[in-house]
Amino acid sequence: MKKIFFPFIFALSLQGQALAFETQVEQLANEVEAEVIKWRRHFHQYPELSNREFNTAKTIAQYLESLGLEVQTGIAKTGVVGILDSGKPGPVVALRADMDALPITETVDLPFASKVRSTHNGVDVGVMHACGHDTHMAMLMGAAKVLTSMKDKLNGKVKFIFQPAEEGAPAGEKGGAEVMVKEGVLKSPDVDVIFGLHISSAQDVGTVRYKEGGIMAAVDPYKIVVKGKQAHGAYPWKSVDPIVTAAQIIMGLQTIVSREVKLIDSAAVVSVGMIQGGNRSNIIPSEVEMVGTIRTLNPHIRKHIHQSVRNKATSIAKSMNATAEVTLPLDYSYPITYNEPSLMRKMMPVLEQTAGKENTLHSKAVTGAEDFSFFQEQVPGLYLFVGGKAKDMPVEQAPGHHTPEFQIDESGMKLGVKLLSNLTLNYMANH
Predict the structure, then answer these.
(1) At what angle do helices 413-429 and 341-355 cross, to 10 degrees?
(2) Among residues 334, 338, 383, 427, which one is catalytic?
(3) Which residues contact 20 (CB under 8 A, 6 or more apart)?
(4) Which of 3, 77, 203, 252 is the most exposed place for a label (fewest CB within 10 A)?
(5) DSSP letters of 262-321?
(6) Strands 193-204 and 92-98
């Protein structure tokens, strides 16, 4: 009887503790909401490009210091980490937000709209938080405030990771999560688990979307250089035509997904985004260059597609008496954003209790990519989507990410603060 009774009592105790945490988190999230909105508007008005988040980092560091946290700066150039130490033994929970904006000129009529301009790869551009990173930073700062206020309820440490260059470093530079990992952001103290959120402009405020396993795709850019023999356009038989060869390769690449990937198991994409070759209508050139992207949600399929791209390109080129040089990956590569299934199962009650069961929605995987995946390669982690669309807005009218019209409903940020806080508290209470 004791073997049944005591675990039952313990389980009830944990449930009661979790309920008490959630009540306090709800209260504190309500209190900090106005500040979260203020921070978001500040970051939105003064955005900075990847690896150039100097003022953004300064603002974040100053705030974390005001909370009494140990603060580290200059990680991966502009990254900031705050450490909250409960003074008690326990796990190390990491929470992450990205910091960088995009080279996009804002067209939304807001009192805090960005007027910032900068230089991106040598070109003068407008700068805008067109993917919601301003909200991510604000939500994480809000969670830092909540968890600092609840320090006595914590066991272990919390690492608040503010990451630069999620959108990719400028040409010739390195940046982002991969660099942070290499510089030891998950060490000293060693992180046990990591949580991250992304706001969605097409998802209703108050909802959270989740998926176990691959939730965002691996991304692998590639380049294929087709080399032939130049000739006059009037005498094509004297050439080895790299343009016709490239066209054949492009069509061949499309059969990889349509005929080699079991699509009922996992989606995949092979796209050609750029083709360059030739300079006159009457000259068949000697060389054509193609650049494209591969997106996969399964590591085995990823490996297969990589090999198939190489085989298709080189074999088709050979059949046309040309050659093809394949560079894969081209300049960067992101792993699959992978939510550890066992961790997902353990944290599901937290999502349902925080957002409400009716607002906790299973998501399909998306073929966009996120360098949060580099953290998940090292430690178990969960990446979730939080709603940022007003409920009365038809989804087809929702502005897309990475567009000049991008905007979100700021009331959605409070759920993000609560999720980050409750995930941390629950994980600590049970480990």
Answers:
(1) 130
(2) 334
(3) none
(4) 3
(5) -TTT--EEEEEEEEE--SSTTEE-SEEEEEEEEEESSHHHHHHHHHHHHHHHHHHHHHTT
(6) parallel
Kindly report, residue by residue over 360-410, the tens digit of the pLDDT: 999 999 999 999 999 999 999 999 999 999 999 999 999 999 999 999 999
Is 334 noted as a catalytic residue in this protein? yes
Identify any residues that bridge with 387 across adjacent strands, giving them in sequence order. 200
pTM of the model: 0.91
- Tokens found for residue 359: 């607002």
Degrees, nearest 5: CA angle 403-407-410: 155
Distances (CA, A) of 89 to 189, 233, 369: 12, 75, 35
Chain segment 11-39, per-residue pLDDT in tens: 445 555 655 688 999 999 999 999 999 99
Q: Round to whole Å and give the CA distance between 46 and 24.
A: 33
Catalytic entry in 287, 370, 410, 427: 410
CB atoms within 10 A of CB 213: 15
Task: List, in order of start, the domains of the chain with CATH numbers.
Answer: 2-214+338-429 (3.40.630.10), 218-327 (3.30.70.360)
Q: How many whole angstroms separate alpha carbon 225 and alpha carbon 376?
A: 34
Taking alpha carbons only, the member of 274, 278, 272 closest to residue 236 is 278
Q: Cβ contacts of residue 247 below 8 Å, gap of 6+?
A: none
DSSP character string of 230-266: -EETT-GGGSB-HHHHHHHHHHHHHHHHHHHS-TTT-
**Residue 13 burial by Cβ neighbours in a 10 Å radius (0-12, 13-18, 19+):** exposed
Per the document, the length of the chain is 431
